[in-house]
Structures
1.
Amino acid sequence: MPEALLTLSGLDAHYGDFQALYGLDMSIGEGEVIAIIGANGAGKTTLMRSISGLLKNRADGVSYRGQAIGALRADQVAELGIALVPEGRQLFPSLSVEENLMIGGKVGRPGHWSLQTVYELFPILEERRHQASTSLSGGQQQMVAIGRALMANPDLILFDEISLGLAPVIIRQIYEALPGIVGQGMTAMIVEQDIAQALKVSSRVYCLQEGRISLEGATGDVTHDQITAAYFGMDA
Amino acid sequence: MSAATVTRSTRASRIAMVLGLLGLVVLAAAPWWAGRADLRLMGEIYLYLSLACLWNLMAGYAGLVSVGQQAYVGFGGYMLFALTVFAGLNPVVAILVGALLAAAISIPIATLIFRLKGAYFAIGTWVVAEVFRLSFAQIQALGGGSGSSLPVAVVKELGAKKAAREATSYWLALGAAVIVLFAVYFFLRSRRGLALTAIRDSEVAASGLGIDIWRTKLEVYVVTSAFTAIIGGLIFLQKLRISPDAAFSVNDWTAFVIFIVVIGGIGTLEGPIIGTLLFFALREVLADYGTIYLMVLGLVAIVVMLKAPKGVWGLIRDRYDLELFPLSYRVRQKD
Amino acid sequence: MIEWTGVIVQGVLLGGLYALFAAGLSLIFGVMRLVNIAHGDLIILAAYMGLTTTVMLGVHPFLALLIVMPVMAGLGYVLQRGILNQTLGDDILPPLLVTFGLSVIIQNALLETYTADPRKLDGGGIEVASIDMGGLAIGVLPLMTFLIAVAVIAGLQFIFYRTALGRGFRAVSDNQDIAQLMGLNKAHVFGLAMALALAVVAIAGILLGMRTSFDPAIGGGRLIFGFEAVIIGGLGNLWGTLAGGVILGVAQTIGAKIDPGFQILAGHIAFLIVLAVRPNGLLPRVEH
């Protein structure tokens, strides 16, 4: 395995009295594409929120390039080069398409991605650059959300349910664009309910079940039955 | 298996009840044992306690944060003067009629300012108070901007001798405080009170339960306005002189009241009582330092709001699990 | 006829001052949903700072702005990060009560420092100067105030919709969590918004101080005027605050023309009428 970029050690997460994650251990190597799968409520989004700093943790619960970042604020985590494409896209409605992208570039890290390269990836966005982000279709909004995250030129990009609520043809388009994105030397974690899509682009997979890791392995090694068992929590 | 009972009262609350009644008897006898200055001070304490309880009911329970309750204090005061002088009513009757008028006028006001949300509602109430102040300043028959005094003939209706008048006005203040305290207490224990608590805890959930939020808030606003007008009438029955600036003072009738409630503990029944006692203790100590006193008060309120948002009573309650006015239910195991 | 035209022109120009009171209030509400009860007292604080600066350095009030504006902006930033950020959340009580406490502190600190005597800023004659426009005498200071208000609002509009700072304001206003993910520290962004609001407050305070005499107790009234202009104009619309200020100003001058004691009351009544017939204001928020 390549050198670890991100390490989770005994990561817990709580919402008030409710515990959503139980002692997760994970290690993501530089340049890897990891799929995180699991049923609704398994803790996938909580995991994304914990890594990106939206949910505060023990400092050493999450470490990135050897630095403990679990207790950092989300903006500090972003500055270190971790970007999240949030579930439900969550564009800024008061901002135009281009402004949404520009605010993604706020952290100002150098790299391949700029307005120009994002527009090359998703040409439709350039046509719509001055429109209100709310006037776009769901698929186009997802492109803005991905472009917005890319604009930060992150080293690690987290995708949270990017196919949710989109038409299959759009999902295919977005997943066709993914190799071009992660081909830029980026490490990626892909949270998906669409297991087939996730497995197609990833090299390793973790399955979450009720806040715990129920399966872990190289994509080629895990069998369909193993995934079904880990996903639903029953023996195949 | 042991049976459990659900009860509201606790040993502390029953002891508080008995002590409270004993204390009430002692306080009612004050005209025979207290000096004139003390009597005045105690009367003032009761009236502030009442204002604090009423404001707390609105802000702490109904979520109606008003910085314009001086509108009804002043209105009650002016109605006392107008109805005794022009309609020849007995002062106590005048105050009660004033309360009814305040309730009546508060309904159209509420329909207007309830359109403002949250903090904007607060400033809206202030505008209303300013409209009252400026309007009463226009009424020349009530002394216009410089105000007027209560005629001697009206004052004499409270008692022929000065001592008797002072005792009467003391008892009225004490009676008003007791009534307000119990009214607020029983209101909160009633179905409507529970609805209110539900609204405070979650408006969405409350409306899901079929509680008409707007109507419940309106009722609280109207009832509070009427009681506030009564207290206003009693305040100016003590002062015997009224002017627009004194009657509608935001500092005297709202700022102090807010500080009392915040420091004592907002959203609790005990808070206003503790807050009032602290407020007057602080005032007696720092009275010579006018502006400094107010700055200290503002600072204490800010610190309390940031560091202990449930106020002094909240700190005490968390530490000792006390409740003097039994509002919440407790589950008890029977042996 | 010409008399009434004069009254209306005066009212429009007065509206510029009220728009300046309102702009800061509108800005911070737009960015962080905070209503600052101490806003009016901060305007008066700025006027007193102008007084001290002009007296100590012997400069014109406009030059004093070079000191008062950055000082007020700095105060705004510190106030926001030190105190007000801690009050923001779902509960409306903490910000309301904390700024209310702040209002009382500022008022009494001014009283302690400057006494209750009314003071005025010496504008070196421009407060009495007027220009003749077709038989109408228009005060130079009110005219300047109005033009400054237009410039300030245009400037705020530019910052809000054309700069990275404004983009940050709008993003944080839309969704604090996601904005944070973009590397925006909301505590800092809120601090900057309050700094900008108090820079505008500084301008408003200096112009107010040249126009009329002031004392520590009048802050509450200025808060109310600003608030009325915001609500009349429509929440979250900067040009709306100018429209709201103008309507308030015209209502007041017409009221004063009828009876001097009726000036302020007429403004309040205009506000209540707008609230009754158009509760969302004349120019409600436009989404971009």
Note: Chain B touches chain C through 42 residues (CB under 8 Å).
2.
Amino acid sequence: MIDIIIDMVLLLFLTVMAFTILRLRDLLSMAMILGLYSLLMAGLFMVMDAPDVAFTEAAVGSGVATILMLVTLTLTRIRYEKKAAGLQWRPLIIVLLTGAALLYGIHDIPPVGDIEAPAQQHVADRYIAEARNETGVPNMVTAVLASYRGFDTLGEVVVIFTAGIGVMLLLGNGTRRYRG
Amino acid sequence: MKDNIILRIVAKLLIPLVILFALYVQFHGDYSPGGGFQAGVIFSSALILYRLIFGLQAGNEVIPRPILKLLASLGVLLYAGTGVVTMLMGGEFLDYSVLADTPIHGQHTGIILVELGVGFTVSATMLLIFDAFAGRPLATQNTTTGKRDD
């Protein structure tokens, strides 16, 4: 019962945030509310028993990403979103079609925690049964990410490293002295 | 912002706690939620907070940029290197079972090593990206109106 109430409250605030971002024109406030949106998402992940994802969402989504957006706004000195002239039909149609497709797709999503779900049918049983014995690591998520799926995680680390190199190449080395 | 006493005191209280939590998430990741990636972003968010309050210059004095670049590449090297070592010791790439006397010890050692690599790369890269953004010169033109405003 309490789970449902927390879910409802979080989702309600999430919707409020989304509509607030739509209505705002001030980019600074938009960046801040996007941060709040991520924090609410982190709360939802926590309710769904995924604290690892919640950590990441809280630190990256509402922390680092928001700060990077604020820094970008400071650098570019753009304050307001340009107002579109009249109703934009083509984007509206695309958005409505995508929304309809997503709503239609909801029917095929298995309920949360369904053991018949395709995701639970493949190797999950083996991980749950054997992860502790095979790796000696009680946290199954760590065992899967670092050991069973070690090659994927190596790829992710290389992606992050590459992203860092890319940003440094594009934006320079950050050698300018800070005036603040 | 370094003249604001409230920000400064709160940051000084918070930053050590955040760093401590990051280390906990890193080294306790085998037993509780978290791991290298989460620890890395939490650690870097603490140092980004430091940069926001005390300035980029002071932030760069805590960990100099060459060391950050070294750490970012060292993480990838540590991760991939663990894989190469397991190959040299007769296993497959990233099969940690051969690292120690028993497979379970080997797995545990391997997981700790690669998580450390992830932590190094993620924390250093986040800081480098922030520095690259924050170190840019300010735009001299207001891009919305096209007029110079300074």
Note: The two ends of chain A are 50 Å apart (CA to CA).
